[in-house]
Amino acid sequence: MASFATEDESVADLFAQPDFWKSSMLLDSPAPLAEDFFDLSDTSRKGPIVSDTLSLPDTGYFRLPPDLNTESRPEGTADGEVVNIDHKSLRSPRPESDVDPWIFHQDAFPEAVNFKTWDSFDVPEAPLNPQIFITEAGTDAYDSYLASESNPCGIQPHTPHETLDPNAYSACMLAMALGRDSVLFSWNSEKKTFQSSLPLSKAPGYSAESLSAMLPLCTLCGQAYRRLRSFIDKTYSSSASPPRVALANALDSLLLVVQDELGRRGLMTISILQLQALVRPTYRLLSYYYRLVIKIKRSTNDADLLSLIYNEAQSAEMSEPVLRDTMGQILRIVSTPWAEFVEEWIGLKPEEGTRIDKSGSGKGFVRVENHMWIDDQGFELEEPDYVLDSDNMPGFVPDDVAQVIFETGKNIRFLQESHHQHPMASINAKNSTTVPRLEWQYDWESIMRVEEKALEYQRAVLDLLQKTRDASESNAHLRAHSFVDQDDDGQLQVFGKNEQAIQQRLLASIANLERPIETRETWNRLSDVLRQNLFDHQHQGESTVADFSPHWSLLPLLSFGPIVFTQARLVNGECLRLLFSEHGLREHLAVQRAFQLLGNGMFSSRLRNALFNPDMETTERRTGMSRSGVTMGLRLSSRENWPPASSELRLALMGMLAESYQQESGAAGNGLPGDLSFAIRDLSTEEMERCMDQGSLEALDFLRMSYKPPQALAPVITKASLIKYDRVFKLMLRVLRMLFVVDQLFRDIVLQASHWANLLDVCVRFRVEAHHFVTNIGRYFFDMGIDQPWRRFQAWLDKIEKGLQDSGLDQSAAIVSPKRLGEEHEQTLDNIAQALLLRKKQQPVLKLLEEIFTQILRFAKQVRSHAPSDHDSEEIKNMYKAFREKVEIFITVCRGMGEKAGSRNYGEADGRSPESALAMLVLMLDMSNYYTKR
């Protein structure tokens, strides 16, 4: 251990035990170098190191204790006088005095008075400058200045004002800003404002004018607080809708945060001016939401409420960060009931409370209405169905998203009603997957997470569906071999479940119970936003430059679109798969093509013979003759009475549909799809009168096809499509009759040639032109009018059915729903109707065609006459002339329509349209310009 040594001392022994009680040699004989540095005597000081001009004032925190103050030392000791120090006294273990010179005795000396300045009010470390303003001289000086009658500022004296404690006055103002009563300010329920208990009062250091300018701010803030609280209480006490209750909850959370933050910060203020700085942003926030509440009171339904809040949130995007962020959170909170209903409707979560069905009135944007329709017997029937109520859909939801949401919900109900065991129909089957929730997203990162969740959910559901299909196939295989491989090993079974299945169910239930409870952090996020941005001005300044985020017009689509479209793609795919596989959609459509559109050749041939062939056995009752019931027909052109009886129709058409269907499909004994049969059309009085004439074109308009689609196929084969099928069948039955008439004309003219020698050339020309015209019209109707659109529809169905066999992970693929399938079906029928001149705007052309057919029927009837006369010959000439003129007009009109359609459809993908096909009809009718030459 080393020790200090002087020049005269020798180096100490390193291993010697030191004597700790021995005094230091430096005290006994100080070295010359350390004489001044280690001297403890006050009398040996020569004076301050620096001059007095550079010395700091001996006040404040770093002032010397009184015992060490050099200025208080006696001046009797000279500078050069050496004072001897008693080193023994220094070595004494107890000091001579109990006073420690290094302890600062604050009570001994009063603290120096410092002037308060505006600079030190904001920055306490600011240097002290000479006081310039009178307010910096203290409250007493300022109050004295205000009390003087002759002040240079002209401020009125405040002698009548009662001076109050500033802390108490500030606390009363804070309570009023929070909407509370206090000693100085109380709430007047009649005037809906705060009133002062003391008419004239002031606080030290403030003028009455300045306080009067501060009071309105706190008064208005308290009024806004009270009015918001009143709105919240009224909402809770009334039977308000869920979005309004959610808004009340959000405002309640906002008021709680304001009460907490403003109350805590307001109690820490040391000046009324600081309180004013805290109340000002609070008032801006509360007044903004009070104006929002006033606008909300005018809304009539929940959709208007959500649309209004969305518009306000969009408007607040470029305002203060606190308004922008809080409006985003409030929009998220208020939209939660609507988003939860959408999740229940599209099958993302189980329905709570009363389920939506067709027996009720609906809920939200889903309304149940009765649709009127006429059945085969002509009776008006009502059928309830779901209808999209656009007035109750929020305005921020795009129309295509709203339609997808509605159709997905309808398809979910179809699965729940017709296939309740399907995994998509049961929400419990999807508990093992992470079901995403619908929620507003405001930044690109959150939107990307939503898309990832939607894709993950789609993969999980597709895996579940594939496992279900594999399990159903294996169960079907086991059921097929159950009678062969059955053995009873005495296993435990409960309700058809073996021990292993019961164990798996229990484990799955336990795993479900062990999952953490889902928590909604929306309220906490709103509180966090308010606490961070309401009074944090530095944070507000940094957040004024908003991060790059999507425009508000895109937020609904980006927030809800990925999940909605994913669920729609899954649900619609399963519905279409069931329609094709289990409900026989293609089979029902083939029946319409074969019979309603006369696509079955065997059926068309038999129907033609049964209705028009005069060689068939008649179905009329004749005296002394019995009807055999085999190969019988109505013989339209060879009978005397018309219309036929119902028994005659049954005899003529009996077995025709079933035999034709069995021959085409190969099915035997299964019946016709949709109970297809012949029926009588419901006609008006005028139409019935035209049917009474067997020679008229409308003689067979009473005959129709009766078909009732299954309930599962109602979205595809709708009532409107059945009406279109009926119109096409009615026209094609007339064309079928005309084809038979022009074919029969050749035989009739040959048989009557001896009687029509002088008119043979006119009759032959009429017969040839009529045959040419009707044959080409029939070829155009059957081939181009019906077959081509139907082939395109079949190709589209093949593409959809093939797409159902893919994995289904293509997010860019178009969503095809049963309704979309029905729309494509009706569009095909519209194209057919347009090609067949059945559209409303084509009625004049169709009427012209019917007049041409009527002229041919009159000529055929005249040819069958056995006693012609000169009058008949002249009449036939007039018929031919009228026929020729009408055909020329018909071709001219069709040529114009075809040219107009061709110029309008120039550059299209397929280059074909129902109207442009009329150009082909013109070419078939007048290839050599026979009817245009004169």
UniProtKB/TrEMBL annotation:
A GO term for molecular function: gamma-tubulin binding
InterPro entries attached to this UniProt entry: GCP (IPR007259), GCP_C (IPR040457), GCP_C_sf (IPR042241), GCP_N (IPR041470)
Superkingdom as given in the UniProt entry: Eukaryota
Subcellular locations according to the entry: Cytoplasm, Cytoskeleton, Microtubule organizing center
Sequence similarity: Belongs to the TUBGCP family.
The species this protein was found in: Diaporthe helianthi
Primary residence: cytoplasm
The protein's name in its UniProt record: Spindle pole body component
